[in-house]
Design goal:
The protein contains three helices and four strands, in the order βαβββαα. It is of the alpha+beta class. The protein has two domains: 69 residues, no CATH class; 33 residues. Strand 3 and strand 4 form a beta hairpin.
Length: 105
């Protein structure tokens, strides 16, 4: 691996090994430049990087995030994002309507 990365083989919660239960080609690396953990796959075309983990330490959230963001779950994840965006839009519209009503009186 490039010297800007360190492959994680041992960690407190054994996430570096447990990640292979999801996909045997997965491995975790720490990127020294970005100071982020990254999920890689040995058999991925066009480079091994799958995703940058949004956590500053390795724990069970890492496994949950890796499972949730797998290609097999893409449709479900997109639907979840769309529902969340719709909820946010509705909240903003409600807040704007309340503000308009309050300023009208």
């Amino acid at each position: 691996m490039i010297s800007t990365h360190h492959i994680i083989s041992t960690d407190l919660y054994n996430i570096g090994n447990r990640i292979r239960e999801i996909d045997n080609s997965y491995f975790i690396a720490f990127n020294y430049k970005t100071k982020k953990f990254e999920l890689h796959a040995k058999n991925k075309r066009g480079g091994s990087l799958c995703l940058v983990l949004p956590f500053n330490k390795l724990d069970n959230r890492t496994l949950d995030y890796a499972r949730r963001t797998r290609v097999e779950n893409a449709a479900k994840l997109l639907k979840e994002i769309e529902l969340n965006n719709l909820k946010i839009q509705q909240q903003k519209a409600k807040a704007l309507a309340s503000k308009a009503i309050a300023s009208a009186f």
